[in-house]
Amino acid sequence: MPKAVLVLHRWLGVVIGAVMTLWCLSGVVMLYVDYPRLTPAEQLRGLPPLQLPGAAALARIGLPDDLPLASARVEMVAGRAVLRIVPDASPERSIGQMRAMPASYDLATGGPLAMLSPTDLRRVAEDYAAQAGLAGGVKAIAATGIDQWTVQAYRRNRPLVRVDYADPAGTRIYIAGKTGEIVQQTTRFERFWNWLGAVPHWLYPTLLRQHAEAWSQVVIWTSLIGCFLTLTGLWVGIARLRRRKDGSFGSPYKRVWWWHHVSGLIFGLLTLSWVASGLLSMNPWGLLQSRAGMIQRQRLAGAMPWAAARSALMRLERWPPDTRRVEIVPLGGRPYPVAQAGDGVATRFDAGGRRAPLRREDIAAALRSGPPIASLALLTAEDAYHYRHKASARLPVWRAILADHQATRLYVDPDTGMLLRAVDGNARASRWLQDGLHRLDLPGLRARPLWDLVVLPLLAMVTLVCGTGTWMGWRKARRHLRRRTPARLPSRHGVAQSARPQD
Question: Which stretch of DSSP H or E encloses residue 71?
Answer without folding.
Answer: strand 68-77
